[in-house]
Structures are given as structure tokens and as C-alpha cells.
Design goal:
It is a single chain. This protein has 107 residues and is mainly alpha-helical. The chain is flat.
Length: 107
């Protein structure tokens, strides 16, 4: 716990499910084993927040007691002001297309 062997690179194949069911589940299991009587509180930033919400939404065996999200908003383009919608939509489309071109997300 504390480092991850998963890195975006050409020839590396992993996705959110690998992170949610592997990395997040492993970290929570290790924390619960080390501190079985303590409340489990997660502070998650950015993509970590997305992963933690996905983990908890999929009925995990280890539930957290509190989840604190920082900068983890989902960029749902219709919720943005009209002047920014096209930009947010374009960024979302680029995030879907770039991995297909490069074989990984170059971000």
C-alpha cells in the first residue's frame, strides 16, 4: 500500500475496473486489517474520488464510514454555462479518443 504498479504507458492494458477492484480494494483491505476497530475515512482527490465512489457504488465487502471528496466533480457538459459547454464536451471527447490513438491516455 502506498505505491501502485499501474502506470499508463504504451503496451499497458488496464482500466477503471482494475483500479477500483484491485488498487482501491487492496488499500481498503490493508487499512481495515491494520485498524479493525477504527472508522474508515477516505479523503480522495480528483481521479481518486471517482475511483472511491465507483468502489463504494459496487457494493464492496469493505464499506467506508466517511468519504471526503476534493476536486472530484464529474464534467457533465450540459450543467456548464452555455459559453463553456462546447469546451467541456470537447475535452470529454478528447479523453475518450486519445487512448485509442496512443494506446494509453497521455495525460
Amino acid at each position: 500500500v502506498g505505491t501502485s504498479p499501474v502506470r499508463a504507458a504504451p503496451g499497458t492494458d488496464w482500466d477503471y475496473a482494475d483500479l477500483v477492484h484491485g488498487e482501491v480494494a487492496g488499500a481498503l483491505s490493508a487499512l481495515r486489517a491494520a485498524f479493525p476497530q477504527s472508522p474508515l475515512v477516505a479523503l480522495a482527490h480528483s481521479l481518486g474520488g471517482h475511483l472511491m465512489v465507483l468502489h463504494q457504488a459496487n457494493a464492496p465487502a469493505i464499506r467506508i464510514d466517511r468519504l471526503i471528496l476534493v476536486g472530484s466533480g464529474a464534467p457533465y457538459w450540459p450543467c456548464y454555462p452555455l459559453a463553456r459547454r462546447a469546451t467541456v464536451l470537447a475535452i470529454g471527447c478528447a479523453a475518450a479518443i486519445l487512448p485509442r490513438w496512443f494506446g494509453y491516455f497521455p495525460g
